[in-house]
Specification:
This protein is mainly β. It has 1 helix and 10 strands. A 4-stranded antiparallel beta sheet has the order 3-4-5-6, with no helix packed on it. A 4-stranded antiparallel beta sheet has the order 7-8-9-10, with no helix packed on it. The model is unreliable at 14-28 (pLDDT under 50).
Length: 133
């Protein structure tokens, strides 16, 4: 009886770990305010971004509309990742993370770097922002 329970507990643990992947395309909850974990294009379609996983980190991949990869970066741990979104009129890319908050990555010469002085536009809604009444 103990062996059967041990096997069942092991299977349950494996299933729970497999079902917790943040980047599952079929998972409910892929939108968090303005942020998404799906492939998303810049305001003019010149670039698009999508996420992959590397060990414990999220990797943001940025490509041109012609599918040429131009930049990648690791903004946060995958268990803390809540999504990305582009600004409506620039190539600024915002990342929402459970432990780091909301961080802007500003583009210069097809290189995105964290911009601690960036001010989040009002139209970019966080997972934690209160909904309109």
């Amino acid at each position: 009886m103990r062996k059967i329970l041990a096997v069942l507990l092991s299977l349950t643990a494996v299933l729970a770990m497999c079902s917790c992947s943040v980047i599952s395309a079929s998972a409910p909850g892929t939108e968090y305010g303005s942020f998404t974990i799906r492939k998303t294009a810049s305001y003019d379609g010149k670039y698009y971004a999508f996420m992959t996983q590397d060990d414990q980190m999220i990797v943001v991949n940025i490509c041109t509309g012609d599918d040429e990869e131009v930049f990648t970066f690791e903004p946060c741990r995958k268990r803390d990742f809540w999504g990305i979104c582009w600004e409506n009129d620039s190539y600024n890319l915002w990342v929402q993370s459970g432990d780091l908050g909301i961080i802007c990555y500003t583009m210069s010469d097809e290189v995105w770097s964290a911009d601690d002085s960036a001010v989040r536009p009002d139209y970019i809604i966080s997972k934690y922002d209160a909904p309109d009444p």
